[in-house]
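2024-03-11 09:14:02 INFO worker-7 job=invfold-0412 stage=load source=structure_tokens
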């Protein structure tokens, strides 16, 4: 049984200096999967060294891909060389595929495995076993996948007898990059075109990477933010690739908010991916009056990248958030709640019901934790209303959720007194060096 870690954070001073956030988690997942089905040797530089992405890499190895870590650790992360099996060369795994805590691993692999003619089973830890898989299973079944899960196809474990897929046109009820990516991966193996329509645009890393590998992917924007993606199955192999993974904006977001709520703070956060489908937080912070600048803009391996300069400029204004903005910052909502707690007025978040079924119920977890710290919060089915005010240190339970643990560690910087984070080991899911970075930047 994993030991729970307790970390105490107190407001010792401003955040000052430079940091490079860990590699982008979403891109790392997708790179490992696509390298595993490419025809030849792919090189992934700065592959995220964290629990979730390790689960994906281990799964691809179990499916027959060969992987070698040729450079581990250091300021530029680790380089992973993957020798892919080709689009039709994966093998049946000899045991259950362990997805750990990673919903991304399980959902994306559900699409991949549905297209491969063998039997496989995916399982995960206690948290993942309670997270919904129906949103992926329903459209995959429409494509002809023979896929089953616990409680009437709702929860893991997930078993799949792959092969025999047909392309479909699917209108997604909720924008989800994971569901979209799963269907695109399945579509690589389907007979006919796969057409996906999402109500609002979500992160597009999979589309960008598939296009780079030679797959025929077309994207068309429609009225009201609707987004349609059409995939034509490739006639030949997917090309191997070299890719440098940029820094993860979602990880950088904690230090962006930390600098904005801590007096005299100034940070330069380097090498951060600024894909417009990921950086909705910046638009909200601009409305709040934050001091943020993007410097050294460039493109790295098909993704926009920049250095983010953030400086404390005083009080923040409240905000309203909902609708098509939510998919552009869904992972940043927990730490955005911390910014709301420090704003002068009441902020409201709606349309974020997706947060109820993440690693924890993030709406409930943020509401409970902020109340413990003295903030007035009203909880709705799909969001929160947060009245800014002074915060007091308190005991916080992470609920096993990395983003909850990090969000309240940042809140602690602006609170009176000490804050204890129980279950702080959860940060290892995406940002193993979070606490050491936090200590280094506190001046």
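2024-03-11 09:14:09 INFO worker-7 stage=emit residues=443
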């Amino acid at each position: 049984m994993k030991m729970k870690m307790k970390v105490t954070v107190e407001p010792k001073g401003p955040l000052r200096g430079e940091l490079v956030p860990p590699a982008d988690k979403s891109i790392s997942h997708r790179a490992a999967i696509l390298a595993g089905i490419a025809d030849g040797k792919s090189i992934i530089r700065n592959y995220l060294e964290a629990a979730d992405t390790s689960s994906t890499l281990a799964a691809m190895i179990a499916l027959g891909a060969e992987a070698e870590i040729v450079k581990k650790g250091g300021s530029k992360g680790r380089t992973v060389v993957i020798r892919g099996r080709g689009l039709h060369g994966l093998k049946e795994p000899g045991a259950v595929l362990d997805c750990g805590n990673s919903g991304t691993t399980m959902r994306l692999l559900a699409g991949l495995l549905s297209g491969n003619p063998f039997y496989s089973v995916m399982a995960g830890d206690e948290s993942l076993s309670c997270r919904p898989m129906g949103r992926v299973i329903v459209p995959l079944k429409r494509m002809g996948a023979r896929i089953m899960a616990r409680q009437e196809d709702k929860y893991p474990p997930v078993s799949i007898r792959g092969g025999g897929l047909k392309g479909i046109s699917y209108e997604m009820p909720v924008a989800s990059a994971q569901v979209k990516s799963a269907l695109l991966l399945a579509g690589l193996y389907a007979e006919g075109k796969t057409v996906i329509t999402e109500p609002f645009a979500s992160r597009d890393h999979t589309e960008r990477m598939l296009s780079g590998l030679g797959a025929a992917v077309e994207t068309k924007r429609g009225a009201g933010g609707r987004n349609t993606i059409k995939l034509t199955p490739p006639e030949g192999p997917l090309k191997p690739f070299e890719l440098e993974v940029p820094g993860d904006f979602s990880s950088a977001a904690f230090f962006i908010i930390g600098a904005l709520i801590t007096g005299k703070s100034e940070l330069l956060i380097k090498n951060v991916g600024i894909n417009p489908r990921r950086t909705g937080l910046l638009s909200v912070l601009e409305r709040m009056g934050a001091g943020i600048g993007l410097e050294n803009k460039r493109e790295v391996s098909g993704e926009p990248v920049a250095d983010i300069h953030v400086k404390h400029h005083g009080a923040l204004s409240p905000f309203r958030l909902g609708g098509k903005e939510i998919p552009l910052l869904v992972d940043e909502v927990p730490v955005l709640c911390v910014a709301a707690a420090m704003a002068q007025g009441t902020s409201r978040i709606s349309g974020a019901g997706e947060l109820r079924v993440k690693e924890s119920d993030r709406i409930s977890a943020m509401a409970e934790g902020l109340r413990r710290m003295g903030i007035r919060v009203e909880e709705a089915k799909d969001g929160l209303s947060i009245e800014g005010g002074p915060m007091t240190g308190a005991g916080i339970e992470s609920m096993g959720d990395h983003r909850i643990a990090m969000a309240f560690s940042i809140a602690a910087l602006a609170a009176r007194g000490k804050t204890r984070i129980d279950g702080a080991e959860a940060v290892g899911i995406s940002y193993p060096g979070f606490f050491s970075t936090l200590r280094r930047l506190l001046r």
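2024-03-11 09:14:09 INFO worker-7 stage=report msg="The first strand starts at residue 6 and ends at 9."
2024-03-11 09:14:10 INFO worker-7 job finished
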